[in-house]
Write a structure and sequence with these properties.
By secondary structure, the protein is α/β, with parallel strands linked by helices. Helix content is 30%, strand content 36%. The strands form two sheets. The chain has a seven-stranded mixed beta sheet, sandwiched between helices.
Length: 242
């Protein structure tokens, strides 16, 4: 069951506004070009920001996400007909024989158990053509992002076109490494509605990820930095080997 921020229709509609400029996505468009992948599978595509950027550039894109409310936002955007949108999770991917699978926005951290993560890696492997690539990001545990989240508990207030003013507050509710839990509280000032969304993410380390990938049929070609968040992320570039 995806978190409220992705699955609640009212929260999914304000997700992009609070997510801000997607400075992170240019690097992924660059990686797709670099790898020469024509068919791209966007796993956990959410509101479709990367899928739409790629489709606009002529790539064949399938976006998969379990949150129907986020997919509805994606389907309502300009150019959405160019993308094939599929409701499903990472373990139930369509057999698209993709040249590249991507997980942006730290989707890799939503898989909390070893079984969930292994299941996702195996299903992605099956959805890739032989020799296809998997590219994903995950926050470096050493950077301790949750400390920044806990320190910056100020309220963000946005006037969102078509929605009116919404405020968002972030609270870190538990740090029990490798798991970090947090809660967003949104207030819709137009009618006073207050909605909360609780999330837990898993922070996996570099060596653990290298091992996980090797055990599930991938060879790691590179582990990069995210150019828009230097020092914060691992960006894994892996290749299906079996
Ligand atoms: C932080 S959002 C990132 C969305 C998108 N990749 C982006 O960069 O904007 C995380 C996404 O992971 C999705 N998600 C949660 N559980 C999932 C699962 N088991 N399989 C695939 N996606 C999942 C959520 O619904 C949500 O859309």
């Amino acid at each position: 069951m995806p978190d409220g921020i992705f699955a609640h229709p009212r929260l999914a509609r304000v997700y992009d506004a609070f997510d801000g400029d997607r400075d992170d996505l240019a690097a992924y468009v660059g990686i797709v070009e670099e790898l020469g992948a024509g068919r791209v599978l966007d796993v956990g595509c959410g509101t479709g920001c990367l899928a739409l950027l790629l489709a606009e550039r002529g790539y064949t894109v399938v976006g998969v996400d379990p949150a129907e409310a986020s997919l509805q936002v994606a389907r309502s955007k300009a150019g959405a007909v160019r993308v094939t949108w599929v409701r499903g999770d990472a373990t139930s991917l369509p057999a698209v024989s993709a040249e590249l699978a991507v997980m942006t926005g730290n989707v890799a951290q939503v898989f909390l158990t070893d079984d969930d993560w292994t299941g996702a890696l195996r299903a992605i492997h099956a959805a890739l053509e032989p020799g296809g690539h998997l590219v994903f990001e995950t926050r470096r545990p050493q950077r301790r992002a949750w400390q920044d989240w806990a320190a910056g508990t100020g309220e963000i207030r946005l006037d969102i076109p078509g929605v009116a003013v919404v405020t968002r507050r972030l609270e870190v509710t538990q740090v029990r490494l490798p798991f970090v839990s947090f809660r967003y509280t949104y207030t819709f000032l137009s009618d006073g509605t207050v909605l909360t969304s609780d999330s837990t993410l898993r922070f996996r380390d570099h060596d653990e990820l290298i091992t996980n990938l090797a055990h599930n049929g991938y060879r790691v070609l590179d582990v990069r930095d995210a150019p828009d968040r230097p020092g914060h992320e691992f960006v894994f570039v892996a290749k299906r080997t079996t």
